[in-house]
Each structure stands twice: as C-alpha cells, then as structure tokens.
C-alpha cells in the first residue's frame, strides 16, 4: 500500500504529527528515518532542514541517518528504514541529484514496499508528475531540462500557498491540464493506498 505524507513545512502541525505516527505504527524510539537534506544549500534552507530534524527528535525519534546523495546508493542499504524524509530547498537541484544518484529508483522501490515517504516543500514537489510549478520560486541553476517528477501522485502540489498565488495556480492548472492542490504551511497531503486527503 502506497504511503506518502507531503507537506509544506514538516511536522509543525500536531495533526500531521499524529498521522505520521499512526501510519508508521511503531513507538517513536524504534522508528528508523533516512533524512535527506540535499535540497538545502543556502544558510536559510539549512536552518529549516535543522528545524525538521529537531521536530523528529522532539517526538522521540533517535534513529536518524543523514545522507546527501553525493554518491550512488543501492536499495539494500535503504530497505531497513521505516521512512525516507526529504527536506525542502531548491526543487531543481534536488531532482537533479536524486536522478543523478539513482535515488529516484530507490524511492519508488521503497514506496512500492509499503514504506513511508515524507516530503517537505521541494521534497513534496518532486513526487508530482512534473516539477514545473517550482519555476517562479526556485532558480534552475543546474540547467535541468527534464522536469518529470517521480510521479508518485497524479496531481500537482503547490506548497506554501497564500492567496497571492491563487491566479498563478489557476492558470498553471488550466495550461498543464493537471489538477493543482495548494498546500498551506500547516497542511499535508496524505496518501494511504490509492486515495489522498488534506490534513490541517
């Protein structure tokens, strides 16, 4: 069964935190997290990645391994983890590194095995059919030309939504012919099996 929690800002909302623990179904002290802050390159982005890690520690999770996708990985190294947690930052750089390292295939195998993928901001967008919605907000400084995402969901999520984005999202959805779901900072798109729902 496919399990995804896709957020704007991580575990700040207690309802998202509850859904996270319910889906995993283990005591926090026994949960193993693979933590991926690769998209966080600037001082500001790294600050949020550290905050995400502290949120995990705050709920009692101690088994956290950090990787940065700077080398090839294989699924056997990853399959013992309960969660792949991918932080926010630059969406284009993140997708570039994920595909370069082969981590895209690992994520798909991990999710197919019924394990939980947790995304924050850029880590959320890469799960969509494509990542073009990030263009007004992130600089494509790696010259990425293939914007195809991991396609783990069949809608586009737009994190950090505010009313000022309403017109842009409406136009984007019309042009791309794919449903766009806006996500506010206190919301998550939770997939359990085939269906998805917003938690707030």
Give the SSE layout.
Blueprint: E1 3-7, H1 14-24, E2 32-36, H2 43-58, E3 63-66, H3 75-78, E4 83-86, H4 91-101, H5 103-112, E5 116-120, H6 122-125, E6 156-158, H7 166-176, E7 180-182, E8 188-192, E9 195-199
Parallel strand pairs: 1-5, 2-3, 2-4, 4-5, 6-7
Antiparallel strand pairs: 1-8, 8-9
Structural account:
The protein is α/β, with parallel strands linked by helices. It has a single domain, classed as Class I glutamine amidotransferase (GATase) domain (Rossmann fold, 3-Layer(aba) Sandwich), CATH 3.40.50.880. It is built from seven helices and nine strands; from the N terminus they run βαβαβαβααβαβαβββ. The strands form two sheets. Strands 3-2-4-5-1-8-9 form a seven-stranded mixed beta sheet, with helices on both faces. Strands 6-7 form a two-stranded parallel ribbon. A hairpin with a 2-residue loop joins β8 (188-192) and β9 (195-199). The two termini are 23 Å apart. The mean pLDDT is 95.
Count of domain modules: 1
**Which stretches are poorly predicted, pLDDT < 50 over at least 5 residues?**
none
Helix content: 25-40%
CATH H-level name... which superfamily? Class I glutamine amidotransferase (GATase) domain
The proportion of residues in beta strands is 15-25%
Q: For the record, what CATH class applies?
A: Alpha Beta
N-to-C series of helices and strands: EHEHEHEHHEHEHEEE
Which topology does CATH recognise? Answer: Rossmann fold
């Amino acid at each position: 069964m496919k399990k995804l929690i896709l957020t704007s800002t991580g575990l700040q909302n207690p309802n998202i935190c509850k859904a996270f623990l319910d889906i995993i179904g283990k005591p926090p002290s026994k949960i193993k997290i693979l933590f991926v802050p690769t998209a966080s390159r600037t001082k500001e982005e790294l600050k949020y990645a550290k905050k995400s890690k502290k949120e995990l520690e705050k709920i009692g999770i101690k088994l956290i391994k950090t990787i940065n996708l700077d080398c090839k990985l294989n699924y056997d190294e990853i399959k013992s983890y309960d969660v792949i947690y991918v932080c926010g930052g630059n969406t284009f750089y993140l997708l570039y590194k994920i595909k370069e390292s082969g981590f895209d295939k690992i994520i798909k195998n991990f999710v197919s095995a019924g394990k939980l993928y947790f995304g924050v901001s850029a880590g959320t967008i890469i799960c969509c059919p494509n990542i073009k919605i990030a263009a007004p907000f992130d600089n494509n400084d790696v010259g990425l030309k293939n914007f195809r995402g991991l396609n783990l969901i069949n809608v586009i999520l737009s994190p950090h939504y505010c009313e000022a984005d309403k017109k842009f999202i409406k136009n984007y959805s019309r042009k791309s012919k794919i449903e766009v779901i806006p996500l506010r900072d206190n919301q998550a798109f939770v997939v359990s099996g085939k269906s998805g729902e917003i938690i707030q």
